[in-house]
Specification:
single chain; about 140 residues; alpha+beta; two-stranded antiparallel sheet; 4 strands
Length: about 140
């Protein structure tokens, strides 16, 4: 019995947050690596064929003065909140609207339901920022 509890306690556990980031990473690899590359710096195999150079997605926060702009990122990914118009060569990933929704605070005191896939990929992108964001806006 003691051996079993030692073995069980030594097994690493995966938190819900880690699992959420794993889903986001999977979505990134499925939809974004062809242009942005595995390391998200804009060096994917299709990058040279595009009119617009793919952005370095690890520097989103740095380009915005250390701010992580969650709604802007989600809008660029799929146009869900229509904050920004799609760019040349940047597809809207409509599949991110499929599946379950989760509550999301839009920053003005209102909570709305947003597709979880959209939040998962945006949170994955947040996790790979270099340097890490200093401030956050929804």
């Amino acid at each position: 019995m003691i051996v079993a509890s030692i073995v069980i306690s030594s097994v690493p556990t995966i938190s819900a947050a880690d699992e959420f980031l794993d889903f986001g990473k999977d979505l990134f690899f499925e939809h974004c690596t062809r242009c942005h590359g595995v390391d998200a710096t804009g060096n994917g195999p299709d990058a040279t064929d595009l009119k617009t150079v793919p952005a370095d997605l690890t520097k989103i926060s740095e380009r915005r003065g250390g701010v992580w702009p969650m709604l802007e990122v989600m809008s660029i990914l799929d146009g869900y909140l229509k904050v920004q118009e799609p760019r040349d060569d940047m597809p809207i990933i409509t599949e991110l609207n499929d599946g379950p929704t989760v509550e999301f605070d839009t920053g003005n005191g209102l909570v709305t339901r947003i597709p979880s896939r959209l939040i998962e990929i945006a949170e994955y992108l947040e996790s790979i920022q270099s340097p890490k964001p200093e401030r956050y806006v929804p």
